[in-house]
């Protein structure tokens, strides 16, 4: 499970916080089954759970919990238990896999276009830009931790189109 979005938004600190998995297999105990982050991917958390309360073929409901108190929102997750050891697919805290959309507003002044981008920011969220999908993405200066930026473009001067995206840690 990845916590990249909560880390980027500042709602989870890997150095001071803990994430757990709770379910029928541990009587929904919010702190019984701790997950640990991996060395290669510090925002990816993994764990091994020995499930003895459900027979193979049965459904296993569960949720993730931050710091033993903050439960994921929404319905329980679930998987079907197999007879052999199994690895669940990669997933995201609260089922959120991105930093969300970027809102765009533009004002045309003479021959220039003033464009304001806004988004749901966070301390480790930053804006990147590229002229097209085949070019490398580059961090937009001073965008780290911001939630809005304004750019002025002059199409008559031959300034290229720009693509924008949000990235985090």
Question: If you had to describe this structure to a student in words, what would you say it looks like?
Answer:
By secondary structure, this protein is mainly beta. It folds into 2 domains: 92 residues, Immunoglobulins (Immunoglobulin-like, Sandwich), CATH 2.60.40.10; 65 residues. 4% of the residues lie in helices and 34% in strands. The chain is built from 1 helix and 12 strands. Strands 1, 2, 3, 4, 5 and 6 form a 6-stranded antiparallel sheet that branches. Strand 4 and strand 5 form a beta hairpin.
Looking at this protein, list some descriptive labels.
mainly beta, 169 residues, Immunoglobulin-like
Q: Might you state the CATH topology name of the largest domain? A: Immunoglobulin-like
Name given to the CATH architecture of the largest domain: Sandwich
Task: Please count the helical segments.
Answer: 1
Mean pLDDT across all amino acids: 92
Q: Fraction of residues in helices?
A: under 10%
H and E order:
HEEEEEEEEEEEE
Secondary structural class: mainly beta
């Amino acid at each position: 499970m990845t916590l990249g979005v909560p880390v980027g938004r500042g709602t989870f600190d890997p150095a001071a916080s803990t994430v757990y998995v709770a379910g029928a297999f541990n009587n929904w105990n919010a702190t019984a089954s701790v997950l640990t982050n991996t060395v290669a991917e510090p925002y990816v958390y993994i764990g091994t759970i020995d499930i003895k309360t459900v027979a193979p073929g049965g459904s296993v409901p569960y949720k993730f919990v931050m710091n033993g108190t903050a439960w994921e929102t929404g319905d329980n997750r679930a998987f079907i238990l197999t007879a052999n050891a199994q690895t669940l697919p990669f997933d995201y805290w609260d089922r959120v896999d991105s930093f969300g959309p970027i809102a765009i507003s533009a004002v045309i002044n003479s021959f220039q276009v003033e464009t304001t981008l806004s988004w749901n920011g966070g301390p480790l969220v930053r804006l990147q830009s590229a002229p097209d999908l085949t070019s490398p993405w580059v961090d937009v200066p001073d965008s780290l931790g911001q939630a809005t930026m304004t750019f002025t473009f002059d199409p008559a001067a031959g300034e290229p189109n720009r693509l924008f995206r949000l990235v985090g840690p």
